[in-house]
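[job 4471] stage=fold_predict status=RUNNING
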Amino acid sequence: MKKKGVLLMICMLLAIGFQGQEKEVDSIKVEGWKKSGLTSLIVNQTAFSNWISGGENSIAATLSVDYNINYYKNGWSWDTKIIGSFGINKNSDSKYFKKIDDRIEINSLIGKKFIEKFSFSSFLNFKTQFAKGFKYTNASEEIEIREETTRFLSPAYLQIGIGVYWKEDNSLWVNMAPITGRLILASKKFTNDLEEGEEYFGVPKGEISRFELGASVSAFYKFEVIENIQLEQRINLYSDYLEQAENIDVDYTITAFMKINDYLSTNLIIQCLYDDNAIKKVQLREVFGLAINLNLLELPSFK
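[job 4471] inference complete, writing structure tokens
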């Protein structure tokens, strides 16, 4: 489809453009475990009093956890990334707290090197959300109605695949999996009342799951643009062999961390999604704000 083609071109051009930045690469792999993580709290607030031009009081906060666990020994590598994020917003003209972010994602990839920088690989990806999601409408100026549209494990995505893994270091890698199974889970609460032929995130009427078999490509690139400004890019592509293989699902996220000091930073997150099963339109999400950053507690030693 044209929109997806344009989207892919933008993503690739962004990635190529950033390749020109200088990047220090570790030439020697350190065997054993390497762990890193960050907890960030982003807060935004606006307030008005007797403000003639108008405005709404609002407050928003997003708590995010991003954890990496990497292992390397004797040609074996195991890279796991755990992401959790939840944010809410409250406006003075609404009686509801509304979500601005809600995400659980686990990526785990095991590889066995067969030539320099290349490994046979097997990966697992799991995605869902923490809380219920709602669609809001106004019956009148005084009455706001909400309708539940999603919840924990509805939908949920589980992908398992095998392929080839190219890894420069923990900051730059690409995984290509020509054999990837994907399971989409959903609650019958959302599928029982569907019309005939209608689907909920690809799951048919009265069902709780949908199985797909296809190919996937995922990549990660993190580098320092200039001192105290770090850029991170992640992209995941998936094509279903069994139905409309030309419709490629895209999940692209670019994150900029602008460090102020050891505890404060300015964070910018832009996420771009395209999934035919969810909505036949490009989805965009942008979060920008001042973040309070804390290093996560060290995990117990691995033996």
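[job 4471] summary: Residues 2-19 form the longest helix (18 residues).
[job 4471] exit 0
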